[in-house]
Amino acid sequence: MAAKPLITFTDVSVRFGQITAINAFTQTVESGEFVALVGPSGCGKSTVLQLAAGLIQPTTGEIERSTANMGYVFQDPTLMPWRTVRKNIELLGELEDMESSERRRRADEVLELVGLSDFAGHYPLQLSGGMRMRASLARSLLLEPDLFLFDEPFGALDQISRARLNDELIALYADRRFGSIFVTHSVDEAVYLATRVLVMCSRPGKVIAEFSVPFDYPRDQSMRYSSEFTKIAGSVAEALAEAS
Amino acid sequence: MTGPLETGMIDSSPEELSRYARLRAQVRIGLPPVLVFFVFIGLWYVVTYFVLSPDRRWLLPPPHQVVFEGFFVGSTLTEILNGLWQSTKVALMGLGLAFMFGFSMALAMSQAKWIERSLYPWAVASQTVPILALVPMIGFWFGFGVLARVIVCFIISLFPIIINSLTGLLSADRGLHSLFTLHNASRWRRAMRLQIPAALPHIFTGLRTAAGLSVIGAIVGDFFFGRGEPGLGLLLDKYASRLQSEELFTTVFIACLLGLAVFWGFGLLGRRMVGDWDPYWAEEKLT
Lengths: 244, 287
Prior knowledge:
The structure holds 2 protein chains of 2 kinds.
Chain A: E1 7-16, E2 19-29, E3 34-38, H1 45-53, E4 60-65, E5 70-73, H2 85-95, H3 100-113, H4 129-141, E6 147-151, H5 159-176, E7 179-184, H6 187-193, E8 196-201, E9 206-212, H7 227-243
Chain B: H1 4-11, H2 15-51, H3 63-71, H4 74-111, H5 113-128, H6 131-142, H7 146-169, H8 174-182, H9 187-224, H10 232-241, H11 245-274, H12 279-282
């Protein structure tokens, strides 16, 4: 890849008082790369995302970014309950002082993209968990970020909603090829979505294994039953078992 | 009134059936309190006619006599309604001041930890101050008229407004805060678009509590600061000293109604403003 990497972590460590959350973390996310991060609870996966976003600063080491346009998707939908779905989706446009007509046009587009056009006027309270997560995804799509940071976005959903949102995310990725760091607990989800899977261990958090996933996009559910998928998922699970 | 969620469910069933079901639900909710009311009135009659001897009946005159003396004697009614208006005015002025001051204080506290730490103990202190101990000073400083009564209402309703507003302002989701940080939102923008809207349900809860307290403050304040137009408290004092028990009971009744009306009014306001999206206010029953 000729383009500059989206983000480069060089020997990054983070300490909170006595505790070392991340140690000697060196990674690069190339433009268009979908990197999944799996690991046991408390291994610093979320810390990596916060570092990437600039919400926290590394204690030592360096982070270099080639883009400032990043989208953050949280574990919870984190919608504003007092705003309708449309108004929620327009939020980041407001914060970036985007023209209101442009905001509306883009909101229409992403609403269509995540299949929520008919629910634009609803409040989050009136939506199901899956729909709220879709609205959250749509909100982060509004500014068409170059790098997405996903913090276990589908972890709280039921299996069916989760599988559907995985497929929708794959379709989006196949279409737009944004860079991603996707944190998850699920080995299956990681291998299904990503071009590369990193396994982290805890105390201190660092990468102990790395797997590339050679399947083409768009992927579909039948891939989950192929022997190659099972083999990769098996190796990831093995590495994860060692990590915890 | 139905919330957005209920409407959806009712639409899905045949309309006639739903109307019947709704009526039944209303009766089921409305009937028990009405029954309690009649039992209460019945007990009242029993006490008046069977417990009290005729020469002591003035201690608790029968309900119909209270209603007649209080509501059908023109001069009494005018006097009581005038008192009601005075007390309402005092209560709302005190509440208004407390809201402006209390909300500003909470907003300041929500902006920096050190401001919160400096002011919080004093907010708590404002609640624990025995208001009766302050009466002489309030009289000295603000006179013994309307202003003093407004100050009593202000002090008494300040705390729930500060605490509820502060809780609300600090309740905004952490993820949303992160988004505002990521997009370099100014303090002003964060307050206007995130913290204040998130605080609204709590603010209305605080207002409703404070409004009830303010009514009590207005009536109690009358007992100590009796200059100027008499409010309900002063009338209570007057009727009690003259043993006019029918008028006394009517005034008590009106004072209760004022408290209820204020509670209900602010409940309605809260539901109107945030009932569409806040689960607590959406389910708030206004029976």
